TrEMBL record:
Species per Swiss-Prot/TrEMBL record: Solanum stoloniferum
Record-linked InterPro entries: MPH2, MPH2_C
Domain Maintenance of Photosystem II under High light 2 C-terminal span(s) in chain numbering: 14-120
Alphabetized PANTHER family for the sequence: THYLAKOID LUMENAL 16.5 KDA PROTEIN, CHLOROPLASTIC
Pfam families recorded: MPH2 (PF20675)
Protein name: Maintenance of Photosystem II under High light 2 C-terminal domain-containing protein
Amino acid sequence: MFNNFHIIKFNGEGYLQDLVYKLSKVGQAIEKNDLSAASSVLGQNTDADWVQKVNSALNKFSGSDEEKSEIDSFNSSLSSLVSSVTKNDIEGSKTAFVASASAFEKWTTLTGLIEELKGL
């Protein structure tokens, strides 16, 4: 259920590839109820360097208000995910993970990048 994300080639855009990888690892950890492993991938807060790089890449490919709205949804759910993992809340982590993955997948559909990210 949580390991549908695979590392794929993304036309040189390493930050979004990194996001797919991280979502895959976090999903696998949550599926095993291993929130310490999920935390080691996510970090302790959403100010992490990797999150800022991912947001830069997301914004680079976003033009419409709807695409930008999905970035906001993704960031909100990612924040909830980090918080739930930090609090050792497995159910909250599962819910927030699904919301994060869904928002990212919707964004890739809206931007037309879904074909580039076949592992979704």
